[in-house]
Amino acid sequence: MGKNRENSFLAKCSYGFADIYGGGAFVVISTFFTVFLTKALGMSPALAGTIPLIGKVWDAITDPIMGNIVDRTSSRFGAKRFYILLGSIISAITFLLLWTSVGGQSTGGQYAFYVLMYMLFSTGFTIVMVPYNGLLPDMVDDYVKRGSFSGIRTVFSSLGAIIAGLVPTIIIKDNTNASQYFLVAVIFSIIFFVVILLTFLGTWEREKEPVNVPLKKSLVQSFTVYKSFSFKLFICIFLAGQGAADFVTGLAVYYVDDVLNAYSGGRFTIMMGVLLLAQFSGTIIFSIVMPRTSKKFPILVGFPVRILATIALLFFSYEGAPFTIILVLSFIIGLGMAASSVSIYAILSDMADVDELITSISRPGIVSGMATFIRKIATGLSSTIIGLLLMMIGYDETLASEKLRQAASTQAGITQLYVWAPIILMVLTIIFAIIFPMNKREFDIVKKEIARRKGEDSSKATDEEIKVCEKVTGFKYNELWKKENAVKL
């Protein structure tokens, strides 16, 4: 029965549903939250851009602790599924609160309100995504099957991004009207509640003993996951790869509205639709190709093509530029954006096994907690940097709130940001992916070594297997499988 459900397409879909929330929530936020604050409420972009970063400082506390709590919890539903169920309600409420308008308050009061709302939203996201990111290792052991589950998950993540990218552009006809943003929030709160609940209902979780480490040591224990060489490189891939996507979504409205002067007439909706449809298509293509190649192959193929398309935008970034060409380039960019998501979530499911070989403790909750934390740090940093860079190139929020065009020098600056910031991050992602030491062969050796350490395999490690274990973990072979590696920095 267990093996049959691991091969079930319905089970894979049930697992993937929740990433409509994981992939969609940040698309809405990255694309529209700073726009909501600057164009609808008149907040300066530099001030608005710091709000997500403050939320990420809060995450530095909540994410590691949540990972520790998950691994310490015992529930008849399974520890991770229990928090996914709880988070379905909390996430819906906190996302709605994030878009509540308090435009009549003082600047200080308004700023404090949205900082608090963002912190509440981040907490809700943590409650869902930390256990969700750690669920797959407790559902499926096989490397290829995990890749299949991860592939379906990224398809749903891309679907969430499509919905999150298109629905707001259809509803928000006037990007200075705060009530239109709130209507979007109501719709997505309902969607997010339903999809998270479906994942709870359709998944399973192996029973295991809770990790008995004092909660007060949670921060120390959480940061010990960075001892793993593979996890360090994974985090670099995660930060750079997703950061490259965040700069596109975070600047898209400014690029289309202020540079192309093409927000009205449904053209922004069309561009976002093309971009997100390409991501969805790319996710399906790369999910099919990845099991036949490697989990980092999508990045190594997709990003070079995306870089070329991004550079080509420089020649068509002006008012009246041929919009069809911009749509074609956006489609290619979207295909490349799919590559990082497919690779990243497939690789993440293997990081708990590397950590277990180092520490002798199975703690996927903590591993996923630190990955979720890093993802939100990337989003917070990109939002802050975008806000600061917009201020540096002379973006005028007063002109924006009055629906007037920005200065020509500011428009040129937005174009340079939209093109070169993602390119720099993509180049870094490619370098990190080339260095990353794990493919299927290395994963199988890690799993075999864990079986040896547990007494389930009586074979002796070969010199080549020892070298692989040391390369993947960054530890000497005789220093592996020690609990002290989990509790001492």
TrEMBL record:
Q: Where in the cell is it found?
A: Cell membrane
Recorded topology in the membrane: Multi-pass membrane protein
Note the InterPro entries from the entry: MFS_2, MFS_dom, MFS_trans_sf
Query: What CDD domains would the database entry show?
Result: MFS_MelB_like (cd17332)
Which keywords label this protein?
Membrane, Transmembrane, Transmembrane helix, Transport
Q: Which residues form the signal peptide?
A: none
A single GO molecular function term of this UniProt record: symporter activity
> What stretches pass through the bilayer?
20-38, 82-99, 111-130, 151-172, 178-201, 233-256, 268-290, 297-318, 324-348, 377-395, 417-438
Q: Does the keyword Transmembrane helix apply?
A: yes
Known Pfam families for this protein?
A: MFS_2 (PF13347)
| Top-level taxon in the UniProt lineage | Bacteria
Gene Ontology BP annotations: carbohydrate transport
Residue ranges of every copy of the Major facilitator superfamily (MFS) profile domain listed in the record: 1-441
- Gene Ontology CC terms, in alphabetical order: plasma membrane
Q: What is this protein called?
A: Oligogalacturonide transporter
Q: Which organism is it from?
A: Pseudobutyrivibrio ruminis
Show the taxonomic lineage.
Bacteria, Bacillati, Bacillota, Clostridia, Lachnospirales
